[in-house]
Each structure stands twice: as C-alpha cells, then as structure tokens.
Amino acid sequence: MASQEVKLLGFWVSPFSIRVEWALKLKGVDYEYIEEDIFNKSSRLLELNPVHKKVPVLVHDGKVMAESFILLEYIDETWKQDPLLLPQDPYERSKARFWARVAEEKLLEYSFTAMCTHGEKKEQALKSAVEAAEKIEEEMKRNNKKFLGGESIGYLDLAMGWIAYWLPVWEEVGSMQIVDPSQFPATTAWSKRFLDHPVIKQNLPPRDKMLVYFHERRKILGGLV
C-alpha cells in the first residue's frame, strides 16, 4: 500500500484540506501535495472533482475521492496502522461523526458568517455560534481523555481542529469573541493539547498570512470594498 501513488490537492489556508494532511502525516503515509488556487481553479481540479469543484481531493492509485470527512474515513480504513482515527465501537463512531457535523454545520458556518458580516446579521450569527460552541463545550467536558479520540488524536480531533487554530484568527479579524477561555475551559484545554502535538504544530499555516488572507476575505464577502 505504501508504494502506491498518493496525491492530495489542497489550498494552504483551508481547514478542510489541512485536516486531511494531518491524517496522512499521523498515519505516516507518503504523498505528493499539490497546491490549488481556489480562485483560479486548474483544469486538473475541475477534471478530478467536476461535481463540487473544491479541495481537498485525494488521488490514491488512480482512485479519486473528495470531501474531507469522507477522506478521513478512507485514510483510516486504507492505512490501518496506528493511530486509529475512528472509534471501533459503533456507537462511539456514530457519535464522532455527529459532533463533527455539528461543529461544521453550526459553529463553523456561524463563526465565518459573523466574521464577514456586520450589524444585525453579525449579531445573529455570533449568538448562534456561541450557542453551538456551548454544546461542543458540554461534549468536551464529558470526555475525560487526553484527546477526543482517546489517548491519541482521532477523527473528531481532526474534524474539530479548526476550532483550535482558525477560530481565534476569525475572532481577531471579526473583532468578536466566541470561545472565551473563562467560559469554555474544556475547549480551551483541548485546543492547547491539540496544537501542542508535534504533527499538528509542524503543519499549520502561518498565522500572520492567515490574518492578511481573512481580512481580505472579510472585506470582499462583507461588501466592505
């Protein structure tokens, strides 16, 4: 399996493609990374992912797959060496998938919207983001292990990894606070442990470049230019 060709098409600041990179590196899988310009999509990306036309895209021995959560599961099932990403217990596995979706569809969506908007729309998105963060904090408190995946980083840690690194950037860019450390101690503690992991720490986009990028996105998406 290790000798087969693995390619990942991604974008440097995308939490969706970077979570797939984290999974490959945790598993020790050799791969070729191909940076895509998502604002000027290459013919290769459009050919490999004609439906969504988005990154990440994983190519493994000629097989093409997309959508980061699907890719995390594929990586875990294809390269079975430790660390195992998904829980072996069916209930715990379904719970991990559920909370990954909650974080994505609630907290991420509302946080990004709050960063890019202003006025009443921003306040509504901010309120919804905090409510979603509170639900996630409750789940974090129920977890008594080092990571959400147990003693090693797992699927849910990778799925929620953006909370630890991207969310603080969005808070700064949007002049807002969603995860107050005094109100979200479990989330804050988990974030620190996650970012301290060597594989994660060594594979993060530069924060200064992220700030510049998201300030520009906020201006464009928020109609401030």
TrEMBL record:
A Pfam entry, by short name: GST_N
Keywords tagged on the record: Coiled coil, Transferase
Reactions that this protein is recorded to catalyse: RX + glutathione = an S-substituted glutathione + a halide anion + H(+)
EC number in record: 2.5.1.18
A single Gene Ontology CC term: cytoplasm
Stretches assigned to the GST N-terminal domain: 4-83
Record InterPro entries: Glutathione-S-Trfase_C-like (IPR010987), Glutathione-S-Trfase_C_sf (IPR036282), Glutathione_S-Trfase (IPR040079), Glutathione_S-Trfase_N (IPR004045), GST_C (IPR004046), GST_C_Tau (IPR045074), Omega/Tau-like (IPR045073), Thioredoxin-like_sf (IPR036249)
Enzyme class of the recorded protein, top EC level: transferase
GO annotation, biological process: glutathione metabolic process
Any GO MF annotation of the entry: glutathione transferase activity
SUPFAM superfamilies: GST C-terminal domain-like, Thioredoxin-like
Coiled-coil region(s): 119-146
Residue span, GST C-terminal domain: 89-221
Family under the similarity heading: Belongs to the GST superfamily.
Protein name (Swiss-Prot/TrEMBL): glutathione transferase
Organism expressing this protein natively: Carya illinoinensis (Pecan)
